[in-house]
Amino acid sequence: MIPLRDTTKSGTFPIVNTAFIAINIAVFIYEIWITNDQRLFMYRFGLVPAIVTTELEIGVFNRLYPFVTSMFLHAGWMHIIGNMLFLYIFGENIEHRMGHFRYLLFYILTGIIAAIIQFLINTNSVIPIVGASGAISGVLGAYLLFYPKSRILTVVPILFFFRIRHLPATVFIFVWFLIQFLGGINSAGSAGDAGGVAFWAHIGGFAAGLILSQYFDKEKNYRQNSFSGYYKN
Predict the structure, then answer these.
(1) Among 74, 79, 96, 202, the one annotated catalytic
(2) Residues whose CB is less than 8 angstroms from the CB of residue 101 and which lie 6 or more positions away in sequence, other chains included
(3) Residue 228 is among the residues annotated as catalytic for this protein
(4) Could you report the per-residue pLDDT of 156-205, keeping only the tens digit for each?
(5) How far apart are CA 74 and CA 28, in angstroms?
(6) Residue 192 — left, alpha, or beta (φ > 0 → left; ψ -120 to 50 → alpha)?
(7) Which strands make up the sheet holding 161-168, listed edge to edge?
(8) Which residue is catalytic, options 133, 137, 187, 213?
(9) What is the pTM of this model?
(10) What architecture is the 2-217 domain classified under in CATH?
C-alpha cells in the first residue's frame, strides 16, 4: 500500500519534520554523488552490529554514534522515496501534536530504540543497518494513538490492478504493522534479516512510538497543567 495523503490537517508549519526530510535528502545526495565510495560511507556511518560487538579498539564514541547517524542514510532511490513519503504524510500532524522540540526528541529517541532492537536481533551481522524507517515507525505508532479516526488516501493493489481508496488510519497502520510482523517472524530463521529489510527495527520503533508518544503529547501535558492549581473554599 502506498499512502498519498491524510485527511487530518495540522494548521502549523512542520519545521522539524521538514528539516528531517531535507537532511535525509541532502545526505543521500552526498552519499551517491559526492562521496567517492558509497559502500565505505555506509560502513562508516551505518550501524554494523559486528563492528560494535567485536572491534574493541574503536572506542566508545565510535560504537555509539552509528545508532544516530544510521537513521539518516538510505540504500537507494526507492528506499529514501518511500521513507520520505511516509514521513511527509504522518510526521506533520505528530509534530503539531507534540510541539517542535518534543517531536525532535521523540523522533531521534524512537529511531535509536529501533536501531537497538535490530542490533540485538543479530549482534554478529556485518550488514549495515541504515534508514529512517525505524524512527518513522515510531511516528506511525504515535499517529495510531493520536489520530485513529483519520483517513489515509491510499493506493491499494488488488490482484493486477491498483485502486485508490480512503482507508481508516487504524486499518492502514494495522496492515502495515502486520506486514512488518510477518516479515520479522520470517526473518527469524535468517538471523533477523530478510531481503535486506530491518523488520525488527520497524517493529521496535512502532512499539516505542506507541508507548512513548503519550509522554510527548503537548495537549495531554497542557490539560494536566490546567487542572494542577489550588482550589480554596
Answers:
(1) 202
(2) 16
(3) no
(4) 888 778 889 899 999 999 999 999 999 888 876 555 455 578 899 999 99
(5) 6
(6) left
(7) 2-6, 151-158, 161-168
(8) 133
(9) 0.88
(10) Up-down Bundle (1.20)
